[in-house]
Specification:
Blueprint (H helix, E strand, L loop, with lengths): L6 E10 L19 E9 L6 E7 L4 H11 L8 H6 L1 H9 L12 H21 L4 H7 L2 H5 L13 H12 L13 E6 L9 H13 L4 E5 L4 H15 L4 E5 L6 H11 L4 E5 L7 H10 L5 E3 L6 H9 L5 E2 L9 H13 L13 H16 L7 E3 L13 E2 L2 E3 L12 H7 L9
Parallel strand pairs: 4-10, 5-6, 6-7, 7-8, 8-9
Antiparallel strand pairs: 1-2, 2-3, 4-12, 11-12
Helix pairs in contact: 1-4, 4-5, 5-14, 8-9, 10-11, 12-13, 13-14
The structure holds magnesium ion (MG).
């Protein structure tokens, strides 16, 4: 391996897929999603070794993320991959605590989404450089080496680097000697793709029936625009899937705390596994009030929790029951793995957010890292929605409602050139 291999350029593209045409992704607050990616390519002196990373947005604003990534480029151009791998944490701090950019964050919003795209591309190139799928690269790292790549800033009152090291070292004792044995691991998933809010009853029935035939056992449905319609749709889906299969609902933050308490009361009879994002994603105490009003229900949240500090508070305050990290909202693995470790410490199951563009491709790696390196909880589940998979060179694979372990080296989000060229918002033929 050539230790002097240098980064020569970083290219950012604003890619938008016109998914709003088909009502894909519609929920109580997002009614016209054009699934989009801030798509970062890291080029090196070796034309066969490039890194690709993205963050997920839903249309307008994707250009803002692209612009933010432009500010990060100079931090890696002309540096070697070895150097970046060794110093990834100080690089992460240089960007997340940038003395000027932090004013438009810090650790949240557009710059943080952009940071995710940038570091997702960096983790991709590093794992490709070692010829390993990302999950395997992480599992192969010596525990101390891994800890030195993770940020514990502002969370070390709850989990220190030493605590984290202990968790990982304990988990490592139970890893198979030969990690190739994990290649055939299947990871349980649930589908969101049948229950978008913009779908008619007929369309939802057809999709739920199709999903049952494909082996799905866990279904999530969007709710929140009208409680009578929510009840009608819950009835409809329970009629098809029966009482044994699992049903979850997601209202995407539309309810107030009191509305959440009232509407959960109405929906309880449908035996809901969890209520996702009932109210504002920032309302740690509000979530707790809902839980206190309904000690018998589970709350899930995380896809819009902006950073590890808010996760720390949600988990420590017992305001959530399922931790739904997002691979593109937290600033990549440097921040995600510490959240997995806090969840492990408090024995909270992690059920990653997925769907969109590339999220399924990302979480398939994170699930394995969590299962084999972080959690001792025995509840395993991850979201899946079959949106935009056709644009990826190696899309995630599902068998019988489970993710199949990815085996190609890297972090799995290389988009096909034909899709990039067609759907580039600035130059693509679709938009121009
Ligand atoms: Mg959701």
């Amino acid at each position: 391996m050539c230790s002097t291999l240098k980064i020569t350029d970083v290219i950012v593209r604003d890619i938008r897929f016109p998914t709003s045409k088909d009502n894909i992704g519609t929920d109580a607050v997002h009614i016209d999603c054009d699934y989009s990616a801030t798509y970062v390519s890291i080029l090196t002196e070796d034309q066969n070794l490039n890194g690709f990373g993205l963050t997920f947005t839903i249309g307008k604003g994707n250009d803002l993320c692209c612009k933010s990534v432009e500010y990060f480029k100079s931090f890696i151009i002309n540096r070697t991959i070895d150097e970046i791998e060794k110093n990834i944490l100080s690089l992460w701090y240089q960007i997340t605590d940038h003395s000027q950019l932090r004013w438009v964050g810090p650790h949240k919003g557009v710059v943080h989404l952009a940071t995710a795209a940038f570091f997702n591309a960096i983790w991709d190139i590093i794992s490709k450089y070692h010829h390993k799928p990302l999950w395997k690269y992480i599992l192969d790292l010596h525990p101390e080496e891994l800890i030195n790549k993770l940020s514990f800033s502002y969370i070390d009152d709850v989990i220190s680097a030493d605590d984290a090291l202990n968790i990982i070292e304990e988990k490592k004792k139970n890893l198979p000697n030969n990690l190739d044995e994990l290649d055939s691991t299947l990871f349980p998933a649930y589908t969101t793709a049948a229950g978008w809010l913009g779908y008619s009853d007929e369309k939802m029935k057809i999709l739920v029936n199709e999903s049952l035939k494909k082996g799905w056992s866990h279904f999530k449905m969007k709710v929140g625009q009208d409680i009578e319609r929510d009840i009608h749709r819950c009835n409809l889906i329970r009629d098809i899937i029966g009482n044994e299969k699992k049903l979850m609902v997601d209202s995407n933050q539309i309810w107030s705390v009191q509305e959440s308490i009232d509407y959960i009361n109405e929906l309880k009879k449908f035996n809901i596994l969890f209520y996702e994002e009932p109210t504002s994603t920032d309302d740690i105490l509000g979530f707790r009030k809902i839980k206190d009003a309904h000690p018998d229900v589970n709350l899930a949240t995380g896809e819009m929790i902006q950073n590890k500090i808010i996760f720390k508070q949600f988990i420590q305050n017992k305001s959530l029951d399922f931790c739904q990290i997002d691979s593109c909202r937290l600033a990549s693995l440097n921040e995600i793995i510490p959240v997995l470790l806090i969840s492990s410490k408090f024995d909270i199951p992690v059920v990653p957010h997925a769907g969109g563009v590339g999220l399924c491709e990302y979480v398939q790696h994170i699930n394995i890292v969590n299962k084999f390196l972080c959690t001792n909880n025995n509840f395993f589940l991850c979201e899946y929605a079959d949106s935009c998979w056709e644009h990826f060179e190696n899309p995630s694979q599902i068998i019988n409602g489970c993710y199949v372990t990815p085996l190609q080296s890297g972090y799995s989000v290389k988009i096909k050139d034909t899709s990039l060229n067609k759907f580039d918002f600035n130059t693509g033929e679709y938009w121009n």
